[in-house]
Amino acid sequence: MSKEDQIIVNSLPRTDVIGVPITATNMGECLSYIDSNLDAIRGSYVCVSNAHACVMAHDDPAYWEVQAGSVMSVPDGKPLSVIGRRKHPAMGRVTGPDLMREVFRMSPERGWRHFFYGSTQGNLDALRVALARDWPELEVADMEPSVFRPLSNEEKAELAGRIDASGADFCWVALGAPRQEVLCHDMEGMTHSVMVGVGGAFNVLSGAVSDAPRWMKDHGLEWLYRLAQEPGRLWKRYLVTNTKFIAYQLTGAKRRRTRR
Pfam families under this entry (predicted)? Predict the structure, then answer.
């Protein structure tokens, strides 16, 4: 990447959210940035960050580096955008499913192709059907399920090779945090695509998991909707990490240096 390209990559400001550098952006600005700078940010990765990710980054210096090293760590969670708006009034949510929808909408005109990595083969099959139905002109370069274990360095290089061989401009990674962001960080510069960690967005877009109503998203109640859907899996996350997030914010947790 040239020095000129590096300046472009670093152009979006970050704001401190419990010590984690979150990109102070909104959906429109995020999409405009990607559209204008796609060639400059190829090989980089985007984190779609929520309160859970922020708490993990706050507590784990290695994961903090992953979040700080992204080309963008966009505010998926409502609390992040609320905190960020104190210094950046235009900051708004950029959720994984909505970001995918908007990029898909733009893709046919721009010729963008997409690789999907993660989840199970059954879930990917359902996603393929949904994509063909909802975005019939979308170019799906390929899909590959997770192996549900960490990849070796050789396997990461081979995956990057398959992504590039498919001609993908975007690689959507659905492994859940922190695995997806760590993988993208490890593969930075190995692929020609832009990697984006989107968690459970594959299941939302396929219809396997219903998306929260807009009014719940607007009022920061998406967590309650998700908890009602998957209480066994999510209760601990919301009880522990959300409580820690609030505590860190109220007590002014120790801040780490914002790199970007």
Answer: Glyco_tran_WecG (PF03808)
